[in-house]
Amino acid sequence: MRYLRQILIPAVIVACAAPAPALCRQTAGGESFTMALTGDAIITRKLSVYREPEFLRMMDLIRSADVAFTNLEMLFHDYEPYPMHESGGTYMRGDPALVHELVWAGFDMVSMANNHTGDYGVEGMRLTRKYVEEAGLVHAGIGENLYEAREARFVETHGGRVALISVASTFTAHSAASKPKGAVRGRPGLSPLRYTRGDTTAPSPEDVEELAAVVRNAAALADYVIVTNHSHESGASRSYPADFLVAFSRAMIDAGADVVAGHGPHVLRGIEIYRGKPIFYSLGDFIFQNETLLRLPEENYRPYGLGEDHHVADFNAARYANETRGFPTQPEIWESVIAMPRWQGKELVALELHPISLGFGLPASQRGRPLPAGREQGRKIINDLVERSQPFGTTIEWREADGIGVVRLQ
Question: Which CATH code is given to the segment(s) 33-290+330-408?
């Protein structure tokens, strides 16, 4: 492990018949392997300037893992590219230097397949990839054609080789990569997961077959395989996944994935332990700083009747009706977890879920940065996961005495 220190913040542990050993402790038969998994990182401001002890302990928690992942829902460039006619909502862009903040926080790998991948076209995607690679982060989910976008990418660690495969089911049409055909080049873009629409949804058999083949290949070349998907689509409510996401996630485990990590809806969804492997149907948000972008294109202002004399703050005020609707009014948007599965060989021996708060109710200049949740809020976050995990047969108990919940695997 990169850091051998015990982190004391509220956690949920998934374990086998006996209580799990302490974090970072070796299990019988050799050293364990720990992952830190988070949801969406919409980063527009520095993290490394903050000094609260609890914040720094949370960063050390991420760094303590053998490998750490976040979904990079941000583009890095200096406005060289122009915005496309359609975006994933807000046109995302951050200062390229911010990629180093994710490295500072301890992350090793990122997904780049999401609904904002194509906001600034192919050039914006390529510039982001350039800065990500220069910072030393491994990425997956985009490429110069569909074959490349589908590929697994690998992280080398002392404890094992980890493969990352990333897809998105929520995306603008122009941002999906395509296959080359004869002398015609494929379109650069993201790795799409398509699905049938209606009351009952199902993943595209072609996409599942292609991605399962990628997983099988990765499982033969790596010790652990992580599949991530970015999906806004919901089931009965935003807190529950659509049917096609359940079918897709299980198919990836069947093909050899060790973890499936979902993100996209900006809320936590339930956890399933399928064939002994964890499926996180959504890890919610890790960083949510979508209100402090430097600039926005005209396309964002026009629907609100805003013109030349209006700027980002005016857009926020119009979009959220002066914080009386939308994200600023929804507490669960600002609540999440850091998930830490721990393995002994290929066996999942523990899973910790560390509740975090992104500052619901704070001013826009402050909210969106993660901090460990207090005890009362942490209990609420875990109770939400208890309810949302019940349909998948996962039982989570909150232990008041130490802030730890335990799910026992059968």
Answer: 3.60.21.10
